[in-house]
Amino acid sequence: MQDEYRTVAHEGVHETEINRSRFLCALAPAATEREAQEFVAHVRKEHPTASHNCFAYVIGADAAVQKASDDGEPGGTAGVPMLQMLMRRDMRYVAAVVTRYYGGVKLGAGGLIRAYGGSVGEALDALGTVTRRRFRLATVTVDHQRAGKVQNDLRAAGREVRDVRYGEAVAIEIGLPDADVEAFRGWLADATAGSAVLELGGEAYGDA
User: Fold this and answer.
1) Quick one: which of 145, 159, 125 has its CA closest to 196?
2) Distance from the CA of 178 to the CA of which of 13, 47, 147, 200 falls in 20 to 30 A?
C-alpha cells in the first residue's frame, strides 16, 4: 500500500476562457470507479449542449484504475493530458470532467493539450487538495475508571479518536502510523499501569 496520496478537498468547478472557448473543469473525490462514472454522467447531464465533456479519473491509492476520454476532440488531446495532470500532481480517488463550449477559434492539437491539462491544474489549485496518510486501525480496551483520562490524553497527544464503545469495558478506536505502534504500546502501558489492551486491526487512510 502507498504510504500516502492526495485527493481533492471537495467537489467544485473552476472556469477558464481560452481563445473564446469556455473550459469548465469539475472535480470531485470518488471512492470507487462507479462513483467516478456517476460524477461524469452527472456533469454531462448538466451540460447537454456543450461541445465536449472530456473526463479523466484515477481510483486507488496505487492508481490501479486510470481512465480518460476525449469525447470527440482529436485523439489524445483532451482526456490523456487531463489524466497526466492528475498523475503528475499525485492525485488519487478523483474524477475530473472538463466541459468545453467552443468559441469559434480552433486551438490546434498543442493548444488543446495545454487547455485541457491546464484546466485541471488550475482547478486543483483553486479548489485545494488534501493528503491522506496510511495508518493502522487500533482498539484500546480500558476499564471505565481510566477511560476518560485515556481519551483526554490521546486527544492531547494529537491522536484521532475515531470511535468509543461502552460495554463491560470501554473500547476506544484510534488510527496509528505503523512506525508509532511500539512507542504507543509503551506509552499506553505506562498511562494505564498495564491494565489497557491494545489490539491492531486493518489499514485505512486518513487526513495527514
Assistant:
1) 145
2) 147
CA distance 68 to 202: 32
| pLDDT tens track for 14-29 | 999 999 999 999 999 9
Q: Are 121 and 159 in contact (CB under 8 A)?
A: no
In angstroms, the Cα distances linking 193 to 53, 117, 119, 172, 174 are: 61, 57, 57, 17, 20
Burial grade of 126 (CB within 10 A; 0-12, 13-18, 19 or more): middle
Asked if pLDDT for residue 208 goes beyond 60, the answer is no
- For residue 96, give every residue at least 6 positions away whose Cβ sits within 8 Å of its Cβ, in sequence order, or none: 25, 26, 27, 55, 56, 57, 82, 86, 120, 123
d(CA 71, CA 106): 16
**Helix, strand and coil in the chain, % to nearest 5:** 35, 40, 25
pLDDT at 18: 94
Q: Cα–Cα distance between 154 and 141 in angstroms, integer?
A: 13
Rounded CA separation 91/29 (Å) = 10
Residue 74's nearest CA partner among 118, 108, 105 is 108
Whole-angstrom CA distances from 96 to 33, 125, 148 are: 12, 13, 44
Q: Would you say how long the chain is, in residues?
A: 208
